[in-house]
Amino acid sequence: MSRLPSASLPASEPAFATPSHPTVCFAISARAEPAVMPRVLEPFAKRGLVPTRWHAVCGAGDELTIDLQIAGIEPALVELIAASLRQIVGVESVLTAEKRYALSA
Q1: Contacts of 9 (CB under 8 A, 6+ apart)
Q2: Which CATH class is domain 18-99?
Q3: Which of 7, 31, 45, 51 is the most exposed place for a label (fewest CB within 10 A)?
Q4: How far, in Å, CA of 75 to CA of 63, rounded?
Q5: Using an 8 Å Cβ cutoff, are 29 and 92 in contact?
């Protein structure tokens, strides 16, 4: 998936990861049900955000693991989206982390 062109993003949101707004990773554990993935994508879509990476795996039994990354969003928005994800029926846990890149000389 790709990001929206920067012209369509709000002025307060950078198009790519920056030192002040790094790439954010969401690790989501949920039940493997057909409606879970669109529900997980909804908090991003309603804010006009497209994840830079999305990887989903059905594990043993009825476990679905979704690893999602999005670049350049503000920390307050990360917490708001994570809280929204935790309220989705079928989602069991949501963890967040930041991914930063080292600057080369």
Answers
A1: 15, 48
A2: alpha beta
A3: 7
A4: 28
A5: yes
